[in-house]
Amino acid sequence: MNEKYDVGIIGGGIIGQSIAYQLAKENISVVVLESNKVGAGATSAAAGMLGASSELENNDAFFQFAKESQHQYKTLNHELTDLSQMNIQHVDKGMYKLAFTEIEAKKLKTACKEHNSLEWHSKQQVLAVEPNLSQEIVGALFIPEDGHVSPKHVCAAFSKSASLLGAVIVENSPVHSIKKLGVEDYILSTNQNQYSCSHIVIANGVWSDYFFKQLELDMKIKPVKGECLAVSSENISLEKTIFYDHCYIVPKGDGRLVVGATMVDDDWSTTPTLGGIQSLIGKITPILPAIKSAKLLETWAGLRPQTGDGKPYIGQHPSGENIYFATGHYRNGILLAPKTGTMVRDLILKRKLNEDYVKAFSITRNLAKAAR
Fold first, then answer.
1. Dist CA 189 CA 195 (whole Å)
2. N or C: which end of the chain has fewer CB within 10 A?
3. Do β-strands 2-10 and 30-33 pair in parallel, antiparallel, or remain unpaired?
4. Contact 56, 63 (CB under 8 A)
5. What would the pLDDT profile of 27-45 be if each residue is shown by its tens digit?
Protein backbone atom coordinates (compact mmCIF):
# COMPACT_ATOMS: atom_id res chain seq x y z
CA MET A 1 0.00 0.00 0.00
CA ASN A 2 1.21 3.51 -0.81
CA GLU A 3 -0.23 6.11 1.57
CA LYS A 4 0.01 9.83 0.78
CA TYR A 5 0.99 12.55 3.31
CA ASP A 6 2.17 16.14 3.20
CA VAL A 7 5.06 15.39 5.58
CA GLY A 8 6.81 12.20 6.56
CA ILE A 9 8.90 12.32 9.74
CA ILE A 10 11.59 9.71 10.33
CA GLY A 11 12.00 9.31 14.08
CA GLY A 12 9.43 9.19 16.85
CA GLY A 13 11.41 10.63 19.73
CA ILE A 14 10.65 13.96 21.39
CA ILE A 15 12.04 15.95 18.43
CA GLY A 16 9.98 14.11 15.81
CA GLN A 17 6.83 14.23 17.94
CA SER A 18 7.23 17.97 18.61
CA ILE A 19 7.44 18.61 14.86
CA ALA A 20 4.44 16.36 14.19
CA TYR A 21 2.39 18.22 16.79
CA GLN A 22 3.20 21.65 15.38
CA LEU A 23 2.43 20.55 11.81
CA ALA A 24 -0.81 18.81 12.82
CA LYS A 25 -1.95 22.05 14.48
CA GLU A 26 -1.69 23.62 11.01
CA ASN A 27 -3.93 20.89 9.49
CA ILE A 28 -0.99 19.41 7.60
CA SER A 29 -1.19 15.64 7.10
CA VAL A 30 1.73 13.99 8.86
CA VAL A 31 3.04 10.45 9.31
CA VAL A 32 5.71 9.68 11.93
CA LEU A 33 7.69 6.50 11.34
CA GLU A 34 9.48 5.18 14.43
CA SER A 35 11.76 2.13 14.28
CA ASN A 36 10.95 1.14 17.87
CA LYS A 37 8.39 2.47 20.35
CA VAL A 38 7.67 6.20 20.57
CA GLY A 39 10.33 7.86 22.74
CA ALA A 40 12.25 4.62 23.32
CA GLY A 41 15.67 6.03 22.38
CA ALA A 42 17.55 9.02 23.77
CA THR A 43 14.28 10.59 24.92
CA SER A 44 13.55 7.92 27.52
CA ALA A 45 17.13 8.02 28.79
CA ALA A 46 17.15 11.76 29.52
CA ALA A 47 16.60 13.30 32.95
CA GLY A 48 14.55 16.15 31.49
CA MET A 49 16.61 19.15 32.59
CA LEU A 50 15.71 22.44 30.93
CA GLY A 51 19.19 23.81 31.53
CA ALA A 52 19.54 26.71 29.12
CA SER A 53 21.70 28.73 31.49
CA SER A 54 23.43 25.89 33.34
CA GLU A 55 25.38 24.51 30.40
CA LEU A 56 25.17 27.03 27.55
CA GLU A 57 27.58 29.75 28.57
CA ASN A 58 27.91 31.82 25.40
CA ASN A 59 25.28 34.47 24.76
CA ASP A 60 24.96 33.47 21.10
CA ALA A 61 22.19 32.33 18.76
CA PHE A 62 22.30 28.83 20.25
CA PHE A 63 21.70 30.23 23.74
CA GLN A 64 18.85 32.48 22.58
CA PHE A 65 17.23 29.56 20.75
CA ALA A 66 17.50 27.47 23.91
CA LYS A 67 15.94 30.22 26.04
CA GLU A 68 13.02 30.57 23.63
CA SER A 69 12.48 26.82 23.68
CA GLN A 70 12.63 26.77 27.46
CA HIS A 71 10.00 29.50 27.60
CA GLN A 72 7.73 27.58 25.21
CA TYR A 73 7.36 24.85 27.83
CA LYS A 74 5.26 27.19 29.95
CA THR A 75 2.65 27.39 27.20
CA LEU A 76 3.01 23.74 26.22
CA ASN A 77 2.47 22.66 29.82
CA HIS A 78 -1.14 23.84 29.64
CA GLU A 79 -1.65 23.20 25.93
CA LEU A 80 -0.56 19.55 25.97
CA THR A 81 -2.30 18.81 29.26
CA ASP A 82 -5.60 20.19 27.97
CA LEU A 83 -5.41 18.28 24.69
CA SER A 84 -3.81 14.98 25.70
CA GLN A 85 -4.92 14.88 29.35
CA MET A 86 -1.34 13.94 30.20
CA ASN A 87 0.82 15.69 32.79
CA ILE A 88 4.29 16.49 31.40
CA GLN A 89 5.51 17.06 35.00
CA HIS A 90 6.87 20.53 34.35
CA VAL A 91 8.68 21.72 37.48
CA ASP A 92 9.66 25.38 37.54
CA LYS A 93 11.56 25.77 40.82
CA GLY A 94 14.93 26.59 39.31
CA MET A 95 18.43 25.19 39.62
CA TYR A 96 21.43 25.65 41.87
CA LYS A 97 24.79 25.59 40.08
CA LEU A 98 27.20 24.99 42.93
CA ALA A 99 30.62 26.41 43.72
CA PHE A 100 33.07 24.61 45.98
CA THR A 101 35.95 27.06 45.59
CA GLU A 102 36.28 30.83 45.50
CA ILE A 103 37.54 30.57 41.91
CA GLU A 104 34.36 28.77 40.90
CA ALA A 105 32.29 31.28 42.83
CA LYS A 106 33.96 34.21 41.08
CA LYS A 107 33.15 32.76 37.67
CA LEU A 108 29.51 32.18 38.60
CA LYS A 109 29.16 35.65 40.07
CA THR A 110 30.35 37.06 36.73
CA ALA A 111 27.41 35.34 35.04
CA CYS A 112 25.07 37.37 37.28
CA LYS A 113 26.42 40.58 35.74
CA GLU A 114 25.77 39.30 32.22
CA HIS A 115 22.26 37.94 32.83
CA ASN A 116 19.79 39.85 34.99
CA SER A 117 17.70 36.78 35.78
CA LEU A 118 20.56 35.00 37.58
CA GLU A 119 21.29 35.41 41.29
CA TRP A 120 24.24 34.57 43.50
CA HIS A 121 23.21 32.83 46.73
CA SER A 122 25.60 32.52 49.66
CA LYS A 123 26.33 29.24 51.40
CA GLN A 124 23.87 30.15 54.15
CA GLN A 125 21.13 30.99 51.66
CA VAL A 126 21.61 27.76 49.76
CA LEU A 127 21.69 25.52 52.83
CA ALA A 128 18.60 27.22 54.22
CA VAL A 129 16.73 25.97 51.13
CA GLU A 130 18.63 22.70 50.57
CA PRO A 131 19.97 21.56 53.97
CA ASN A 132 21.04 18.15 52.62
CA LEU A 133 23.75 19.63 50.43
CA SER A 134 27.41 19.50 51.41
CA GLN A 135 28.64 21.93 54.06
CA GLU A 136 31.75 22.39 51.87
CA ILE A 137 30.01 24.57 49.26
CA VAL A 138 30.84 28.29 49.19
CA GLY A 139 27.59 29.23 47.47
CA ALA A 140 25.65 28.73 44.26
CA LEU A 141 24.35 30.46 41.18
CA PHE A 142 20.56 30.38 41.34
CA ILE A 143 19.03 29.93 37.88
CA PRO A 144 15.28 30.45 38.38
CA GLU A 145 14.22 29.43 34.86
CA ASP A 146 16.15 26.14 34.60
CA GLY A 147 13.51 23.64 35.66
CA HIS A 148 12.75 20.16 34.39
CA VAL A 149 10.10 17.94 32.80
CA SER A 150 9.49 14.22 32.35
CA PRO A 151 10.82 13.44 28.85
CA LYS A 152 8.69 10.31 28.49
CA HIS A 153 5.54 12.22 29.38
CA VAL A 154 6.36 15.18 27.12
CA CYS A 155 7.03 12.88 24.19
CA ALA A 156 3.86 10.87 24.84
CA ALA A 157 1.82 14.08 25.19
CA PHE A 158 3.19 15.44 21.91
CA SER A 159 2.43 12.12 20.23
CA LYS A 160 -1.11 11.79 21.58
CA SER A 161 -1.91 15.43 20.85
CA ALA A 162 -0.57 15.11 17.29
CA SER A 163 -2.67 11.97 16.81
CA LEU A 164 -5.80 13.70 18.08
CA LEU A 165 -5.15 16.45 15.53
CA GLY A 166 -4.85 13.93 12.70
CA ALA A 167 -1.22 12.83 12.60
CA VAL A 168 -0.49 9.14 12.03
CA ILE A 169 2.12 7.57 14.33
CA VAL A 170 3.55 4.23 13.18
CA GLU A 171 5.76 2.29 15.60
CA ASN A 172 8.14 -0.59 14.86
CA SER A 173 8.59 0.69 11.30
CA PRO A 174 12.21 1.54 10.52
CA VAL A 175 12.64 3.45 7.25
CA HIS A 176 15.27 1.85 5.05
CA SER A 177 15.16 4.14 2.03
CA ILE A 178 14.12 7.56 0.73
CA LYS A 179 13.40 7.69 -2.99
CA LYS A 180 12.61 10.82 -4.97
CA LEU A 181 9.98 10.40 -7.68
CA GLY A 182 9.20 14.03 -8.50
CA VAL A 183 9.64 17.62 -7.37
CA GLU A 184 7.42 17.08 -4.35
CA ASP A 185 7.10 13.32 -4.30
CA TYR A 186 9.21 11.08 -2.08
CA ILE A 187 8.70 7.47 -1.10
CA LEU A 188 9.62 6.29 2.38
CA SER A 189 9.95 2.52 2.41
CA THR A 190 9.63 0.27 5.43
CA ASN A 191 9.39 -3.52 5.58
CA GLN A 192 5.61 -3.28 5.98
CA ASN A 193 4.60 -0.34 3.80
CA GLN A 194 5.49 2.57 1.55
CA TYR A 195 4.55 6.18 2.29
CA SER A 196 4.34 8.89 -0.34
CA CYS A 197 5.24 12.30 1.10
CA SER A 198 5.70 15.79 -0.29
CA HIS A 199 8.21 16.70 2.44
CA ILE A 200 10.59 14.59 4.52
CA VAL A 201 11.99 15.37 7.97
CA ILE A 202 14.90 13.34 9.31
CA ALA A 203 14.74 13.40 13.11
CA ASN A 204 16.08 10.06 14.25
CA GLY A 205 19.01 11.21 16.35
CA VAL A 206 22.25 9.30 16.19
CA TRP A 207 20.87 7.04 13.44
CA SER A 208 20.56 10.01 11.06
CA ASP A 209 24.01 9.11 9.71
CA TYR A 210 22.34 6.35 7.70
CA PHE A 211 20.36 8.92 5.72
CA PHE A 212 23.27 11.36 5.43
CA LYS A 213 25.13 8.65 3.55
CA GLN A 214 22.09 7.70 1.47
CA LEU A 215 21.62 11.35 0.49
CA GLU A 216 25.38 11.74 -0.18
CA LEU A 217 25.81 14.46 2.43
CA ASP A 218 29.17 14.92 4.14
CA MET A 219 27.73 15.24 7.66
CA LYS A 220 28.38 13.03 10.63
CA ILE A 221 26.81 12.40 14.01
CA LYS A 222 28.50 10.30 16.63
CA PRO A 223 27.00 8.64 19.69
CA VAL A 224 27.96 9.90 23.13
CA LYS A 225 26.76 7.37 25.66
CA GLY A 226 25.22 8.77 28.82
CA GLU A 227 24.66 6.62 31.90
CA CYS A 228 22.25 7.60 34.68
CA LEU A 229 20.90 6.24 37.93
CA ALA A 230 17.85 6.83 40.10
CA VAL A 231 17.68 6.60 43.89
CA SER A 232 15.16 7.27 46.62
CA SER A 233 15.53 8.15 50.28
CA GLU A 234 13.10 9.24 52.95
CA ASN A 235 15.95 11.20 54.57
CA ILE A 236 16.75 13.39 51.54
CA SER A 237 14.58 16.15 50.20
CA LEU A 238 15.55 18.45 47.35
CA GLU A 239 13.49 21.31 45.98
CA LYS A 240 15.69 22.43 43.12
CA THR A 241 17.80 20.73 40.49
CA ILE A 242 21.44 20.60 41.60
CA PHE A 243 24.26 20.96 39.08
CA TYR A 244 28.03 20.73 39.49
CA ASP A 245 30.86 19.79 37.13
CA HIS A 246 28.53 18.42 34.41
CA CYS A 247 26.80 16.25 37.00
CA TYR A 248 23.20 16.82 38.04
CA ILE A 249 20.61 15.67 40.54
CA VAL A 250 17.01 16.11 39.44
CA PRO A 251 14.30 15.65 42.11
CA LYS A 252 11.22 14.06 40.57
CA GLY A 253 7.68 14.33 41.90
CA ASP A 254 7.48 10.62 42.68
CA GLY A 255 10.29 10.82 45.24
CA ARG A 256 13.06 9.71 42.93
CA LEU A 257 16.35 11.56 42.51
CA VAL A 258 17.75 11.15 38.99
CA VAL A 259 21.53 11.44 38.77
CA GLY A 260 23.53 11.79 35.56
CA ALA A 261 25.30 11.59 33.35
CA THR A 262 28.49 10.09 32.01
CA MET A 263 29.85 10.99 28.57
CA VAL A 264 31.43 8.14 26.61
CA ASP A 265 32.36 8.94 23.00
CA ASP A 266 31.63 6.55 20.13
CA ASP A 267 30.01 3.91 22.31
CA TRP A 268 26.88 2.38 20.77
CA SER A 269 26.03 0.28 23.83
CA THR A 270 22.95 1.24 25.85
CA THR A 271 23.94 -0.95 28.79
CA PRO A 272 25.32 0.89 31.85
CA THR A 273 28.78 -0.12 33.03
CA LEU A 274 29.96 -0.58 36.60
CA GLY A 275 32.68 1.99 36.01
CA GLY A 276 30.24 4.55 34.65
CA ILE A 277 27.82 4.21 37.53
CA GLN A 278 30.70 4.23 40.01
CA SER A 279 31.97 7.51 38.54
CA LEU A 280 28.54 9.09 39.01
CA ILE A 281 28.37 7.94 42.62
CA GLY A 282 31.89 9.32 43.17
CA LYS A 283 30.86 12.70 41.77
CA ILE A 284 27.55 12.98 43.55
CA THR A 285 28.53 11.85 47.05
CA PRO A 286 30.60 14.98 47.90
CA ILE A 287 27.67 17.13 46.71
CA LEU A 288 24.96 15.26 48.60
CA PRO A 289 26.66 13.15 51.33
CA ALA A 290 23.40 11.57 52.55
CA ILE A 291 22.95 9.89 49.17
CA LYS A 292 25.24 7.08 50.37
CA SER A 293 22.32 5.65 52.34
CA ALA A 294 19.78 6.03 49.52
CA LYS A 295 18.18 3.07 47.80
CA LEU A 296 19.44 2.42 44.28
CA LEU A 297 16.32 2.01 42.12
CA GLU A 298 17.66 1.59 38.61
CA THR A 299 20.43 2.41 36.15
CA TRP A 300 20.19 3.03 32.42
CA ALA A 301 21.99 4.53 29.44
CA GLY A 302 21.15 6.34 26.22
CA LEU A 303 22.94 7.66 23.14
CA ARG A 304 23.22 11.41 22.64
CA PRO A 305 23.62 12.45 18.98
CA GLN A 306 26.61 14.81 18.72
CA THR A 307 27.63 16.85 15.68
CA GLY A 308 31.15 18.18 15.14
CA ASP A 309 30.47 21.44 16.98
CA GLY A 310 27.84 20.22 19.44
CA LYS A 311 25.00 22.17 17.82
CA PRO A 312 22.05 20.51 16.09
CA TYR A 313 21.28 20.40 12.42
CA ILE A 314 17.95 22.14 11.89
CA GLY A 315 17.43 23.10 8.29
CA GLN A 316 16.68 22.22 4.70
CA HIS A 317 18.69 20.01 2.37
CA PRO A 318 21.46 22.15 0.77
CA SER A 319 20.04 21.51 -2.72
CA GLY A 320 16.72 23.09 -1.78
CA GLU A 321 14.89 19.78 -1.95
CA ASN A 322 11.96 19.26 0.40
CA ILE A 323 14.09 17.24 2.79
CA TYR A 324 14.67 18.73 6.23
CA PHE A 325 16.84 17.81 9.19
CA ALA A 326 16.19 18.09 12.90
CA THR A 327 18.89 16.04 14.52
CA GLY A 328 22.14 16.18 16.49
CA HIS A 329 20.71 17.84 19.61
CA TYR A 330 23.40 16.18 21.78
CA ARG A 331 22.79 16.94 25.49
CA ASN A 332 19.90 19.32 24.90
CA GLY A 333 17.22 17.40 23.02
CA ILE A 334 14.55 17.79 25.68
CA LEU A 335 15.28 21.48 26.15
CA LEU A 336 15.33 22.26 22.42
CA ALA A 337 12.37 20.11 21.32
CA PRO A 338 9.64 22.82 21.44
CA LYS A 339 11.57 25.42 19.44
CA THR A 340 12.84 22.80 17.00
CA GLY A 341 9.23 21.83 16.33
CA THR A 342 8.15 25.38 15.50
CA MET A 343 11.29 26.10 13.43
CA VAL A 344 10.84 23.02 11.23
CA ARG A 345 7.15 23.86 10.88
CA ASP A 346 8.05 27.36 9.70
CA LEU A 347 10.70 26.01 7.31
CA ILE A 348 8.17 23.73 5.66
CA LEU A 349 5.50 26.44 5.51
CA LYS A 350 8.03 28.96 4.11
CA ARG A 351 7.43 31.38 6.94
CA LYS A 352 9.89 34.07 7.96
CA LEU A 353 12.68 32.73 10.16
CA ASN A 354 15.27 34.21 12.47
CA GLU A 355 18.32 34.34 10.19
CA ASP A 356 20.68 33.91 13.13
CA TYR A 357 19.06 30.55 13.86
CA VAL A 358 19.13 29.53 10.20
CA LYS A 359 22.88 30.18 10.07
CA ALA A 360 23.65 28.65 13.46
CA PHE A 361 21.97 25.33 12.64
CA SER A 362 22.57 25.25 8.89
CA ILE A 363 23.41 21.91 7.32
CA THR A 364 26.31 23.57 5.46
CA ARG A 365 27.87 25.51 8.33
CA ASN A 366 31.58 25.11 8.93
CA LEU A 367 31.85 22.61 11.73
CA ALA A 368 34.53 23.04 14.35
CA LYS A 369 36.96 20.15 14.62
CA ALA A 370 36.58 19.96 18.35
CA ALA A 371 33.20 19.16 19.85
CA ARG A 372 31.73 21.66 22.27
1. 7
2. N
3. parallel
4. yes
5. 999 999 999 999 999 999 9
